[in-house]
Give the backbone structure.
Amino acid sequence: MPEEEGESLIHVAIEAEELFQLGPLSFTNSMVGALLTSLLLGLAAWYITRRSSLVPGRLQSAFELPVELMSGIVSASSSRWRGYVGLILGFFLTILVANWIGLLPGVGTIGITHIDASGHEAVIPIVRPASADLNFTLGLALVAFVMFVYWGIKANGPDGYLKELLGEPLYMAPLMFPINLISEFSRLISLSMRLFGNVFAGEVLLATMIALAPILIPAVFLGLEVLFGFVQALVFALLAITYIATAIAEHHTTDHGEADAAGADHPTAAEPAHA
Amino acid sequence: MEGNVAALAAGLAMGLGAIGPGIGLGIAVSKAMEALGRNPEAAGAIFVPYILGIALAEAIGIYALVVSLLLIFVA
């Protein structure tokens, strides 16, 4: 991008910037964000399990709120929800914390100054929210992708999964197989791109607003970004649930027919969420 | 000059690409509100499909964003 005068106020970098070299690896500022995310989650988990009580206090209730929300949704999704509830909760909490780290004061503004290749002085922020890096979101989407292929194979068997990819009338397979394959991989792309696009666009929006009107106006957008961070974490987790649940549910329809599948799903919906 | 054309293309990609998702999101939200108004008890049942629907509609807008980002930073 051509550097213009006055543009240095808005710091926008599409890729994570390198802080220092760690052997052959470059240690980027989004890695700091990711480490901070894991550290925060680990500390919260340790603290809350150490002194949890049956009647939750105020802090414990706050920590239980997202867990209760997600486990309620997961347990209604399919009869095998116990197998993937941990994964989904992990996705949700990781993305939530990773998104909200970007809203903390100092993140993206405190950094190291250096002179870049074209001679301009630029600031490299020390912390960048991990989900504003495509590598992080693609990594999460890959985990989700592997999991829903795994659940598809586990529920239907390898041949059942392959039959699902080939499509229903077998003579249509040459047409349907590439389409199904593309649709499987497009889930991977859309999962990662959605999260990255939203968080990165939010970062750019905040940077622009702070550059345009430094007082009061950015607060409105910060509030919006808190909401968006939550919604995007929820969306990622919900889509992962839906993909895994459909991969499992196809098993019922191929084996026992539609009516049985609907009947088999009923008791799970009635099951208590926090069993 | 080339940079200016890329910037124009990026702006057009984002602006035109936001039309479709905007209409789609408007329809989704209006129908969800309608459903909620008719049957407020169904809020829990509507919530998850609603979020999924708007996420899928919004993904198209995100594709436009990715294209315009590519135009600005890569092309």
Summary: The mean pLDDT of chain B is 87. Chain B touches chain A through 14 residues (CB under 8 Å).
